[in-house]
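From the pipeline queue, job 12 of 40. The input is one protein chain; the requested action is below.

Action: predict structure.
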Amino acid sequence: MANRITHIRRSQLSSTEEHITDVKGVTDGGKHFELSVSQVIHHLKKNYVFYVQLGTRKAMVTYHRNATGTETIRINTDRTSQENLGSLPSF
């Protein structure tokens, strides 16, 4: 079952170094969820599927380890920089 991420929570809305801390959304079965980024990464590692709806297409969510070793989530897209998790509404 796939999980659609619809909203994000940011660490500090005014900071230039803000980051996503939590997400919420709905499963294809209609159940609502709210998870921390670390929980999403945990589920991704267990082959759960998360995606973001971008118009008529789905962009898959993946996790990435940056140069400092911190794991984050992002979407796979080859389109524009506006197609990212940060463009989702906040909650």
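Job complete. Strands lie at 2-10, 20-27, 32-36, 49-54, 57-65, 71-75.
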